[in-house]
Specification:
Alpha-Beta Plaits
Length: 702
C-alpha cells in the first residue's frame, strides 16, 4: 500500500512534532511538578503483577479531508476545513503503555476539481469500524506528566456510498465550457448557440456506481483500511479525559471517488489507492470498576478553631473572606465587588483591569481585551474563514454539514406492482393505461422513474392486484419496496404464484370504473418543481410527442374533480382541464358523466399554459451572509422597491416586478452600474423564484 502523499504526511509530521515538543519540554515538566496533577496510570498493577482494566468510552467530532484522484490529492487545501465526521471509541488499557479497543467513525467525505482539462466532484457517506491500538510513550515521559502524546494504528472496515453532482435542480446536465461557464449544451454541439448559462446546485443526485460512466459495473462499495495517527491525551479530572489527534486511513480501494487509472479519457487517475485524514478531538470517561474508599480526615485542630479559620481566611487578599468569595485568586490590587469578583463596569464579560475599552455598548461582541468588533471586522473575519476552505466549503449549512435528517426509521417492506418505467418518454397507449389506475404513483431511482400501484403487506395480495390490472390490459410485475427503493424479489414471487396456481381465479374482466383527473398542462420544456409547490399528488409523464404533461387528482366522480380544477385555475394554471379514463382508455367527459365533453385525443388536447398575468421578472441584486455593510445597505434603500427573501444560508435581495424580459435586462444594467456586478434576472411565478430562461419559455406558451 502506497503512502506517497507528501502533503498529507507533512501535516502528520508537523502535528507529531508539535505534540512531542509540548510534552517533552523542560518548562512543562517543571510546571507539572508544582502546579498540575499528574496523569493517572492507565492500568493499575496489583501485588501479584496482574493489570486491573479501566474501560473508557469516548465520543467526539472531527474533520474529514480526502486524498485521491479527485482534487489532486487535496493539493492546496487545508485538511482542517472540510466535511464533518464523528467518532466513538471503547478502549481499555492492556499494559501501562498500551491501550486497545474498538473504534467507529461516521461522516461525509467529498472533493471537487475544476480546471481546463476536466471537472469532477463527489460526496460520500463514510462509515468505518474496527480495532485500534494506542502507544503512549510511558517509558520515556516524566511520571508526573500532565499531557501525554501517543501514536495509534489499527485495522478497520470502510463502507462508502459515493454520489456526484451532474445535473442542476431542473435535471439539466452540466457542460463545462472553455470560457469558465457551465451550460446546458455541449460546447462542441451543433446547437451550442442555443446554450444557456446554468449554475451548480451542489446537490449530489447521481450515484457514482449506478451511473457507471467508466464501465466498472457493480463494484463493492466497501474495503479495508489501516488507520495510522498521532495525538495527545490530557486528564481533566473526575474520570474524564480530553484527546485530540489526526489519523490517516490508508484504504485498499481506489474507487471511493469513482476514479481509477482505468477511467475513460481525461477522467483517468493515478495508481495510488484513495486515502482520507480524520482530524478530531473527543471527550472520554473512564468507568470506575470499584467505588473508592473514603478515608477519615483527621485534623489536630478543635472544631471551633477550624470554624474560625474558615470564616476569617482571605487567601487572595481582596478584602472578601473566602467563605463569601465567589472569585478566588483575584490578582493583587484589583478592585472587587461584594462577592470578591473583579469589577466590570460595561458588562461585556471582561474585567475592568483587563478591559481596553471601558464603555463598550451593551450587547456588542468584543475581543479578549474588551474592545467591540466593528461590522467591517466581523464581515472580514467571516470572509477570511470562508476563503480559507477548499471548493467544497460554501456559506450554506446544508452544503457544509448535510441536510438535517430525522432519526433513521425502521425499514418496513411492502409489495407493489410495477406497471411501467420512463427514462426519456413513453407511448400514448401506456400513458392512457397508467392514468386509468386510481392509485398510480411514481418512484424515482437515479435517472429512471418507475410507476407502481398499491402497497400490500403480503405477496399474495400484490399478485391478486397484478391479476386485476390484466383486466385492463396492463402488464405488471410484483416487486418489494423499502423506504422508497424498489427491490427485485422474483424468486419469492414465483414461489407464492406456484402456491396460488391451483384454484386461482381467471383474469378478471374490466370493471368499467371511471377515473377523472385534472391536466394542468402540456409543455415543450419541463417546468421547475417550485411552480407545483403544495401539489402532493403530481403525476408527470413525457409522451413520445415530446410534450411533458402534468396531472393532479384522482376522482371517481366529475363534481369533486371540477372543484379541484377550479383550485388549480386559481393557482395560475390557466390551461387546466378535466380528462377521464375507463379500463385503460381515454373517454370523453360526456361518457364520464359530465354535461360537456372535453378533448377526445390526448395528442390534440390544447397545450397547457400558465396565467401570464401572474408571471413577472425580477433582478436579483445580491446575496449576503451576516451583517450588510452600511454603505451597501444605503444603496439598497436608495434603489427602492427592493424585497429581501431570507433562506437558511443567506438573505437575497430582489428588485422590481417587470412584465417583459427587456425591462428586466435594462434594470439589471442600471443596477450593475451602481456597483452590484453580480446582479442577474430571474422569474417570479406566484411568489416562487424560477430561472429567467424558464420564464422566457413560459411567456412563449400559446
Amino acid at each position: 500500500m502506497s503512502v506517497s502523499s507528501s502533503f498529507s504526511l507533512s501535516h502528520v509530521r508537523s502535528l507529531a512534532g508539535f505534540v512531542l515538543s509540548l510534552f517533552l519540554s523542560p518548562s512543562l515538566s517543571a510546571q507539572s511538578d508544582s502546579t498540575a496533577a499528574p496523569l493517572p496510570p492507565p492500568a493499575a498493577a496489583a501485588a501479584d503483577g496482574t493489570i486491573r482494566l479501566r474501560p473508557t468510552i469516548g465520543l467526539g467530532p472531527g474533520m474529514l479531508a480526502f486524498y485521491g484522484d479527485v482534487g489532486e490529492q487535496n493539493k492546496g487545501f487545508s485538511p482542517l476545513v472540510s466535511r464533518v465526521g464523528y467518532e466513538l471509541r471503547a478502549t481499555t488499557p492492556i499494559t501501562p503503555w498500551l491501550e486497545g479497543g474498538i473504534h467507529v467513525m461516521h461522516g461525509r467525505l467529498s472533493a471537487g476539481e475544476r480546471n481546463l482539462s476536466r471537472s469532477l466532484n463527489f460526496d460520500s457517506r463514510i462509515t468505518t469500524g474496527g480495532v485500534m491500538l494506542r502507544y503512549n510513550f510511558h517509558q520515556l515521559l516524566n511520571p508526573k506528566r500532565v499531557v501525554e502524546p501517543y501514536i495509534n494504528v489499527g485495522f478497520e472496515s470502510v463502507e462508502f456510498l459515493s454520489k456526484t453532482d451532474l445535473r442542476d435542480s431542473q435535471g439539466r446536465p452540466y457542460h463545462y465550457w472553455s470560457d469558465g461557464t457551465i451550460r446546458d449544451i455541449d460546447e462542441q454541439a451543433a446547437n451550442a448557440g442555443d446554450a444557456v448559462v446554468i449554475h451548480r446546485d451542489y446537490t449530489y443526485e447521481s450515484d457514482v456506481r449506478e451511473s457507471n460512466i467508466d464501465g466498472f459495473g457493480k463494484y463493492l462499495e466497501r474495503t479495508w483500511a489501516i488507520p495510522v495517527g498521532v495525538g495527545a491525551r490530557m486528564d481533566i479530572g473526575h474520570g474524564f479525559d480530553f484527546r485530540m489527534g489526526a489519523t490517516m486511513y490508508l484504504t485498499r480501494s481506489d474507487l471511493i471517488d469513482g476514479i481509477t487509472p482505468e477511467s475513460k479519457g481525461d477522467r483517468a487517475g493515478d495508481a495510488r489507492n484513495d486515502r482520507f485524514l480524520f482530524s478530531s478531538f473527543s471527550i472520554g470517561y473512564t468507568i470506575p470498576m470499584k467505588a473508592p474508599q473514603k478515608k477519615a480526615k483527621m485534623t489536630p485542630l478543635h472544631t471551633e478553631e477550624v470554624d474560625q479559620l474558615a470564616w476569617m481566611g482571605d487567601e487572595d487578599g481582596d478584602g472578601v473572606q473566602d467563605i463569601h468569595d465567589k472569585c478566588p485568586f483575584t490578582p493583587h490590587g484589583v478592585k472587587v465587588d461584594a462577592f470578591g469578583c473583579p469589577l466590570d463596569g460595561d458588562g461585556d464579560g471582561v474585567p475592568d483591569h483587563m478591559d481596553d475599552e471601558l464603555n463598550t455598548p451593551p450587547g456588542a461582541p468584543v475581543n479578549a481585551r474588551g474592545v467591540a468588533f466593528t461590522d467591517a471586522e466581523l464581515l472580514k473575519a467571516w470572509l477570511a474563514y470562508k476563503d480559507s476552505g477548499n471548493v467544497n466549503i460554501v456559506a450554506s449549512r446544508v452544503e457544509s454539514f448535510g441536510p438535517m435528517k430525522p432519526p433513521p426509521m425502521k425499514v418496513k417492506r411492502v409489495y407493489v406492482v410495477k406497471v411501467g418505467e420512463q427514462v426519456e418518454s413513453i407511448s400514448e397507449d401506456l400513458i392512457q393505461k397508467l392514468l386509468s389506475i386510481p392509485d398510480i404513483r411514481a418512484v424515482e431511482q437515479g435517472d429512471t422513474t418507475f410507476y407502481v400501484v398499491g402497497s400490500f403487506e403480503s405477496i399474495p395480495e400484490a399478485l391478486r392486484r397484478e391479476l386485476e390490472l390484466k383486466g385492463i390490459k396492463v402488464e405488471g410485475r410484483v416487486m418489494a419496496e423499502e423506504n422508497g427503493r424498489l427491490i427485485d424479489v422474483t424468486d419469492e414471487v414465483e414461489a407464492e404464484r406456484a402456491k396460488m396456481t391451483q384454484g386461482a381465479p381467471s383474469t378478471p374482466q374490466p370493471t368499467g370504473e371511471v377515473i377523472v383527473r385534472v391536466q394542468l398542462g402540456a409543455f415543450r420544456y419541463p417546468l421547475s418543481r417550485n411552480i407545483f409547490e403544495g401539489i402532493d399528488d403530481l403525476v408527470i409523464l413525457k409522451g413520445d410527442d415530446g410534450l411533458t404533461r402534468y396531472y393532479t387528482g384522482s376522482f371517481k366522480e366529475v363534481n369533486p374533480a371540477a372543484e379541484h380544477k377550479v383550485q388549480m385555475l386559481l393557482r395560475g394554471f390557466q390551461g387546466a382541464f378535466l380528462v377521464a379514463f375507463r379500463d385503460g382508455r381515454r373517454i370523453s367527459m360526456k361518457d364520464a358523466g359530465a354535461k360537456l365533453t372535453g378533448p377526445e385525443s390526448m395528442n390534440n388536447a390544447p397545450s397547457g399554459s400558465i396565467d401570464k398575468s401572474k408571471l413577472r421578472y425580477r433582478v436579483q441584486v445580491g446575496t449576503f451572509v451576516g451583517n450588510i455593510p452600511m454603505e451597501t445597505m444605503g444603496k439598497l434603500i436608495e434603489m427602492g422597491d427592493v424585497k429581501p427573501v431570507t433562506s437558511p444560508d443567506a438573505v437575497r435581495y430582489y428588485y422590481g416586478q417587470f412584465k417583459s424580459r427587456k425591462e428586466a435586462d435594462d434594470a439589471k444594467a442600471a443596477i450593475i452600474k451602481k456597483g452590484f456586478a453580480d446582479a442577474f434576472v430571474v422569474g417570479d411565478m406566484n411568489g416562487y423564484i424560477i430561472p429567467a430562461d424558464e420564464a422566457d419559455q413560459l411567456m412563449k406558451q400559446p
